[in-house]
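User: Run a structure prediction on this.
Assistant: Running it now.
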Amino acid sequence: MVERILAAGQTVLLQRGYDATTTNHIAEAAGVSPGSLYQYFPDKTAILSLVIARYADDLEARVSRAFLRALGAEPSVAVRANLVAMLDAFGENPALLRVLVEQMPRSYDSRRGAFARRVDDLMTTAILARQRPTDGTGPTAASDSHVWRSRDSHRYLQYSNIWRLKSFKR
């Protein structure tokens, strides 16, 4: 029952948007009574928060795996592989990404903000770990450059209209 409600919640969210979605719409789409829905969730926020949390968890796991796979690669190869992995993950469900970016609130402690910080941390760690000077004194100018280019690219992808892209050359 919970899975059916969550699937219906995602469907209604994509059809109507966050503000226009109601528990009655979700219950109808799930084929349950509103009273039955309330046995599992107190309100639409609880349903949609779980829909978004699952989506964010999946995105984070996919991007994290890509970063880990690219750890041993040269920085330019790793950056490209990581950006392609993000594009692939973001492009898998562009409608849900659009709702998340355009309609869900973004605060420092939100799932969206946490995901952005996680990707930034992964990029920084992966690139800096690869580019250590032989004397061990700290990052090189080249690694600093790769870090900031990667983070800027990520920010652009995060705030751009990526869901509108039909396809693009990788």
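The mean pLDDT is 76.
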